[in-house]
């Protein structure tokens, strides 16, 4: 399990003063990027050295409770499934110290694709070795 803190800024909210729904996906994306960084992999280096990018293939998100301006949130990211060319994550976003009452939950599947053709490509062995160690 990987946790990433997020503070809600005014720009993250809608006219009702709550986090605009699409921004939860942005918070989840940042947490997955930081998860990769914690494993020692930078997205730009993966493009340059391995010729791959990860693209979201599907996202199923449930909005449960509103988060508001200036809330401190925690995004929890867990690797649920590894495929040859894909990773499936479960993610939840809660106010800090309220993990049992998430504001938003989701399942996001990302595909490893060739950076030039965007066709599926196996996850590089160097990355897969680190991912296996996460379990």
Written account of the structure:
The protein is an alpha+beta fold and 135 residues long. The chain has a single domain, classed as Thiol Ester Dehydrase, Chain A (Roll). Helix content is 27%, strand content 37%. It is built from three helices and five strands. Strand 3 (72-82) and strand 4 (86-95) form a beta hairpin. It starts with a strand and ends with a helix. The mean pLDDT is 93.
Strand and helix map with partners:
Layout: E1 2-7, H1 21-38, H2 43-50, E2 52-63, E3 72-82, E4 86-95, E5 104-114, H3 125-134
Mean pLDDT over all positions: 93
Number of helices: 3
The CATH superfamily turns out to be Hotdog Thioesterase
Q: Specify the helix fraction band.
A: 25-40%
List descriptors.
135 residues, alpha+beta, Thiol Ester Dehydrase, Chain A, 5 strands, elongated
Structure at a glance:
With 135 residues, this protein is of the alpha+beta class. It has helices spanning 21-38, 43-50, 125-134, and strands at 2-7, 52-63, 72-82, 86-95, 104-114. The model has no long low-confidence stretch (mean pLDDT 93).
């Amino acid at each position: 399990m990987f946790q990433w803190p997020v503070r809600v800024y005014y720009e993250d909210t809608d006219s009702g003063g709550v986090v605009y729904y699409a921004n939860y996906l942005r918070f989840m994306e940042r947490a997955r990027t930081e998860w990769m960084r914690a494993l020692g992999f930078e997205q730009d280096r993966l493009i340059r050295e391995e010729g791959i990018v990860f693209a979201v293939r599907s996202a199923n998100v449930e909005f449960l409770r509103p988060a508001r301006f200036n809330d401190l949130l925690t995004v929890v990211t867990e690797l649920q499934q590894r495929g040859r060319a894909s990773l499936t994550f479960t993610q939840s976003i809660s106010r800090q110290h309220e993990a049992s009452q998430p504001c938003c939950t989701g399942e996001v599947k990302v595909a490893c694709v060739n950076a030039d053709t965007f066709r599926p490509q196996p996850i590089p062995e160097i990355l897969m070795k680190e991912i296996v160690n996460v379990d």
